[in-house]
Write a structure and sequence with these properties.
Helix 1 runs parallel beside helix 3, helix 6 packs across helix 11 and helix 21 packs antiparallel against helix 22. By secondary structure, the protein is of the alpha/beta class. The termini are far apart. Helices cover 51% and strands 9% of the residues. It is built from 29 helices and 17 strands. The N terminus is likely disordered.
């Protein structure tokens, strides 16, 4: 009898504990809804339901005047909430905190009950580079919205690398390095992604001490919220990258310089500690224990030992041992550790990583303990090149954007087809779908589309586009549907590439353009014409659409006019030369003004974020220099890699570069001398460096009319040229 009583008590305690966990999910889902809108929080109810044969699931229905959303956890409930917002409220939630969620006056009911199950267990998001190209100066408000956006879009495996410099600072100083040595080893804040990936050390450093404290507190809030929404934050682990100064403290350690990267001087070269060296396991333990103390752990770690740099040896035996010893150092500290690795190196260094070498490297880790992120699948699916990664599970990823470039690109429809083929062919080896974008920019659709593929919505292409167009318009709109059908079917069939920004944002060169138009310009013009048929702009998403398409068309026009300018110069036609140079100036001014209609298309906001993070004028100036340099000269051979078609930047920076180009051409034409390429480059480079280190207020353009009127006036102004 007593035994039966004890068992009953135990069952009750388990039930109470389970109920508490479920109620916690409901509480988190309701809190998310409340952060989006208090009206929304009063309309929806969340209900715990069981998983669907171990898979995440949500239900959506109207009941008793409420929208009832069921889910097996808070993350699934969030996906159900997003389905309601997208499909029935015609609302797109921006990933930017500054953009409010605007709901319809009457929150609609759901006519028929829906039940949707996840197709894959893992949904990954983010890229090391995003911390440089978008997030270096983000504060909690920015992160809070992005985490909500990730939850709404089903992400449950986010990269979470904020704050790791504080962990490394404690490790390196504990091993005997000085404060100045450690902070000088780190790069500046905007360049930390490439330091974390072992590409460069010290560039734009030393890192201020206050950065370490701020980012530690920020990361603690980030991982706490992500875990509350049923995400597993992917934290870093030691991949072998060490300070060069460590050689003086441990002269017997096997530390070797890695190869050069992106044209940077040897002074910024990185160093690798052989994983067989006893010091390796010691550093791994110090790092993981300190990181767990500060941020906890979900037992999954991002480790990328040789990203875009050559390993000390390409011997299959060496690569196998490196992987095996790294994994052993992980599990010695965390027996439940899993390794997450980018497959980017297999694309970037595809000539070096033969099948034999890759197989050796990946099979150095037990099957199922290393998950590969197939990084750039819309262009090259590396799982096909390497036999499904030789048995290791993988996540199909869409990259979509390099450097945060603000141009129309993205192989969306093809990506969707490839995902369907992979799901049909790969079986259980394909464990997830994700996106590895380098910068957020302002067009969300491609990434929302990819993440939606992780769920059994069963939509046709027509349904995808119609729903998207309606929520961008804020109502059912046939012209907007036609615009997005053209974008989806034809224009958005461009494989993303680096240095891919429109010509106005590129370094001026004689008779040489950095880009070509890879779509039918008449179709993109038709897209703009369809968008301009609206009576009003009701949503932030539509504001973005109009700017995104309009500035691309003006950028294409700039390319045509630049080619005509060079031709006029070569022919000595002064009249044509000055006419084209005047028109190019006009286009630059109009681009600047067009971008002023959205705050996230402005240099002012980017620089203000940087300055707001600093506590003193000196640190504010330092952060601003980092912010200016990254999106312009970058460093090494990466000038203009992260260029942006932004208000302020267009006129204060790019137009000034073009002015130097026009001036040097004019001098040559009027004097009858040749264009002096070296003199021109010297003048341009001098201007660039002065601008990067300046803290003068940036010249901001502005439009005196509403966006729709402004775009219509631009369309009319350039009608003849755009129609050609």
């Amino acid at each position: 009898m007593a035994r039966r009583f004890v068992i009953c008590i135990m069952v009750m305690l388990v039930a109470v504990a389970a109920s508490g966990a479920v109620n916690g999910d409901v509480e988190q889902a309701m809190a998310l809804a409340g952060r989006l809108s208090s009206r929304l929080a009063s309309k929806v109810e969340f209900l715990p339901i069981d998983a669907d044969q171990g898979r995440d699931v949500f239900t959506l229905e109207s009941r008793g005047g409420k929208i009832v959303i069921g889910g097996n956890n808070a993350g699934s409930m969030a996906v159900g909430l997003n389905r309601y917002l997208n499909r029935y409220c015609r609302v797109t939630v921006s990933w930017y905190a500054t953009v409010p969620v605007k709901l319809p006056a009457v929150l609609p009911d759901v006519p028929d009950r829906e039940r949707v199950t996840a197709r894959v267990p893992q949904r990954f998001f983010l890229n090391y580079c995003t911390w440089g190209y978008t997030m270096p100066f983000w504060q909690w408000r920015d992160w809070e919205r992005l985490i909500d956006w990730m939850a709404l879009n089903g992400v449950n495996l986010p990269l979470a690398i904020t704050g790791q410099e504080a962990v490394w600072y404690n490790v390196w100083t504990r091993l005997g390095m000085s404060d100045q040595q450690v902070r000088s080893y780190f790069t500046g804040p905007a360049y930390l992604p490439w330091h974390r990936m072992a590409n460069i050390d010290g560039w734009c450093g030393p890192l201020p001490k206050e950065w370490l404290t701020q980012q530690t507190a920020l990361q603690q809030r980030i991982v706490e919220r992500e875990r509350a929404l049923n995400m597993r934050p992917v934290l870093p682990a030691f991949a072998g990258h060490v300070p060069g100064a460590l050689r003086d403290l441990f002269p017997d350690a096997d530390i070797q310089a890695l190869g050069g990267w992106a044209g940077f001087d040897k002074a910024y070269r990185t160093y690798f500690l052989n994983s067989e060296d006893p010091l390796y396991a010691r550093i791994q333990r110090l790092f993981l224990e300190e990181q767990t103390r500060l941020f906890g752990t979900d037992h999954i770690y991002g480790i990328d030992p040789f990203n875009e740099v050559d390993p000390p040896s390409f011997s299959p035996d060496y690569l196998n041992k490196v992987s095996r010893h790294i994994y052993e150092s992980l599990t010695a500290v965390d027996p439940d550790a899993e390794w997450l690795q980018m497959a980017w190196f297999l694309y970037y260094q595809r000539e070096d990583y033969t099948a034999e070498r890759t197989r050796a490297m990946l099979t150095g880790v037990p099957q199922g303990k290393m998950t590969m992120l197939d990084y750039y699948c819309e262009y090259k699916e590396m799982w096909r090149e390497h036999e499904g990664f030789y048995g290791q599970p993988f996540i199909w990823c869409y990259l979509g954007n390099f450097g945060g470039n603000t141009n129309v690109q993205g192989r969306v429809r093809e990506a969707g087809k490839r995902i369907e083929r992979a799901l049909a062919e790969c079986g259980d080896n394909l464990v997830g779908i994700g996106s590895t974008l380098e910068g957020l920019d302002v067009q969300q659709f491609p990434y929302e589309y990819i993440l939606e593929k992780a769920w059994n919505f069963g939509k046709t292409d027509e349904q995808v586009i119609n729903e998207l167009a309606d929520r961008h318009a804020g109502r059912e709109s046939e012209p907007v549907r036609q615009a997005w059908k053209l974008l989806y079917d034809s224009v958005l069939d461009i494989t993303p590439g680096n240095f891919a920004a429109p010509l106005p944002c590129s370094y001026p060169q004689m008779n040489k353009e950095s880009r070509t138009v890879k779509y039918d310009k008449r179709q993109l013009l038709a897209v703009w014409d369809y968008l301009l048929m609206q009576d009003e702009v009701k949503t932030d998403a539509m504001t973005i659409d109009l700017i995104w398409v309009g500035r691309q068309l003006l950028g294409d026009l700039f390319l045509t006019e630049k080619q005509a300018l060079d031709q006029a110069y070569q022919q000595g036609d002064r009249t044509a030369f000055f006419a084209h140079s005047d028109l190019l100036y006009e286009i630059l001014s109009d681009l600047d003004n067009l971008n002023s209609h959205h705050p996230h298309a402005t240099l002012a906001q980017w620089l203000q974020q940087a300055r707001d993070l600093g506590s003193t004028p000196k640190v504010k100036d330092y952060y601003e220099m980092n912010a200016r340099r990254l999106i312009t000269t970058w460093g090494g051979s990466l000038n203009d890699y992260a260029c942006r078609n932004w208000n302020g930047l267009m006129w204060d920076y790019y137009a000034k570069r073009w002015e130097i180009y026009f001036r040097e051409m004019t001098v040559a034409m009027l004097s009858g001398n040749e264009f002096l390429e070296d003199a021109y480059r010297t003048a341009t480079d001098k201007f660039q460096e002065k601008w990067v280190t300046s803290t003068e207020e940036v010249v901001q353009g502005s439009a005196d009319e509403d966006l729709l009127t402004h775009c219509r006036n631009l369309r009319q102004k350039y009608n003849d040229l755009l129609e050609q």
